[in-house]
């Protein structure tokens, strides 16, 4: 009951908060790659996002109540973890092999002090970590959840990153899609991964962040095929095109012709390469889109990690605004149903006689309902 009561949200409060969510023209303009990103706006959205994250933590989705979630999908090695790492400014395990083997819920939060704070949450424990050790800590936690091999699990791992200037965003990184099992992977790895992906992207409350390699034909991407199964018109799909530095001349044409129906648009990025710091990577990215003979022709409103961060914050706000009234309604309905069932139970059973009497009453009503059905 304590949990249920803590779920009760005051609908008026949520609506009050939402009125102030509409972006002003100035806030909606992409800003330069400077921290802190869009702080005034974040002060308004943070309480709502926090409420949704708390609900996620209470496993409300297992009760059939969907929450607005940004879900990152992409074929294996398309750069999903690199994109999330770029947004958070922290190292996530990256690599050619299957690295992400469990859903990783990433909660990014701005916090005012210059010292970043990071921790992992899984199996009911909180494990503090720091920027240097976070990739290792994620690998250790993944092994604990999904085993030491190459298998995957649907039990999520949460990473909380609080750092000055971070956008307030919560996103879920999912294992990448592989067609052919590599050595040590179960035969049905494709089915297992696509089932997890479908579970996360099917609810209409989910925003799909589809990570695509600049170097491939988008229409051949498995992640496009999956997202089109649940979002045909692409109205809740945003595409991030990675490895822009490896792209050939046709990238501008690919993102403007939009052959694969991406309703929320494209953002082309260049992630961190090798041992670069995140600051160096952002500078290199800016330089690339500024001076490269054909990449510089792509409109600046659709290039770079800072633009991606801002778009995601805006999309998340719109989605919260749309979904919260229904979430509040569903929680309150569920709560009153549970409370009425609870009230039907005998409250105090302190003696054997009371327990027997209560048992006889239950037996009586069971007999009665059996009688009715026969
Ligand atoms: P995931 O399997 O989708 O999570 O992909 P990863 O983020 O692990 O990336 C796969 C590989 O591509 C890694 O070696 C990354 O360093 C590299 N990578 C990711 N993004 C870029 C990019 O924008 N440019 C270049 N050159 N390499 C990238
Ligand atoms: Mg990954």
TrEMBL record:
Q: Name one GO cellular component term.
A: cytoplasm
Keywords carried by this UniProt record: GTP-binding, Nucleotide-binding
Q: Which SMART domains match?
A: DYNc
Q: Where are the transmembrane segments?
A: none
Give the matching SUPFAM superfamilies. P-loop containing nucleoside triphosphate hydrolases
Chain ranges of the Dynamin-type G domain: 64-325
Q: Name one Pfam family in it.
A: Dynamin_N
A molecular function (GO) term: GTP binding
Q: Which InterPro entries match?
A: Dynamin (IPR022812), Dynamin_GTPase (IPR001401), Dynamin_N (IPR045063), Dynamin_stalk (IPR000375), G_DYNAMIN_dom (IPR030381), P-loop_NTPase (IPR027417)
Q: What is this protein called?
A: Dynamin-type G domain-containing protein
Per the UniProt record, the lineage of the source organism begins with: Eukaryota, Viridiplantae, Streptophyta, Embryophyta, Tracheophyta
């Amino acid at each position: 009951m304590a949990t249920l009561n803590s779920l009760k949200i005051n609908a008026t409060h949520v609506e009050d908060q939402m009125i102030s969510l509409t972006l002003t023209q100035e806030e909606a303009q992409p800003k330069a790659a400077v921290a802190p990103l869009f702080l005034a706006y974040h002060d308004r959205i943070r309480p709502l996002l926090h409420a949704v994250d708390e609900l996620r933590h209470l496993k409300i989705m297992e009760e059939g109540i969907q929450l607005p979630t940004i879900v990152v999908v992409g074929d294996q090695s398309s750069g999903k973890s690199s994109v999330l790492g770029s947004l958070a400014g922290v190292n996530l395990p990256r690599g050619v092999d299957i690295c992400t083997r469990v859903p990783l819920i990433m909660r990014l939060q701005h916090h005012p002090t210059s010292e970043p704070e990071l921790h992992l949450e899984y199996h009911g424990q909180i494990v503090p970590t720091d920027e240097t050790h976070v990739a290792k800590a994620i690998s250790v936690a993944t092994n604990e959840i999904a085993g030491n091999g190459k298998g995957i699990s649907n039990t999520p791992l949460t990473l909380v990153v609080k750092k000055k200037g971070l956008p307030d965003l919560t996103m879920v990184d999912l294992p990448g899609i592989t067609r052919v099992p590599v050595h040590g992977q179960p035969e049905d790895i494709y089915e297992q991964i696509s089932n997890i992906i479908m579970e996360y992207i099917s609810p209409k409350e989910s925003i799909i962040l589809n990570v695509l390699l600049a170097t491939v034909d988008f229409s051949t991407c498995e992640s496009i095929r999956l997202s089109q199964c649940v979002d045909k018109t692409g109205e809740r799909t945003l595409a991030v095109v990675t490895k822009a530095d490896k792209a050939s001349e046709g990238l501008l044409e690919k993102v403007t012709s939009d052959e694969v129906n991406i309703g929320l648009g494209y953002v082309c990025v260049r992630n961190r390469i090798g041992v670069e710091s995140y600051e160096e990577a952002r500078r290199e990215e800016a330089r690339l889109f500024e001076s490269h003979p054909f990449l510089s022709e792509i409109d600046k409103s659709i290039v770079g990690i800072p633009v991606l961060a801002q778009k995601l914050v805006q999309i998340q706000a719109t989605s919260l605004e749309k979904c919260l009234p229904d979430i509040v309604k569903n929680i309150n309905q569920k709560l009153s149903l549970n409370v009425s069932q609870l009230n039907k139970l005998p409250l105090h059973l302190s003696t054997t006689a009371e327990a027997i009497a209560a048992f006889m009453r239950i037996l009586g009503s069971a007999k009665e309902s059996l009688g009715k059905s026969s």
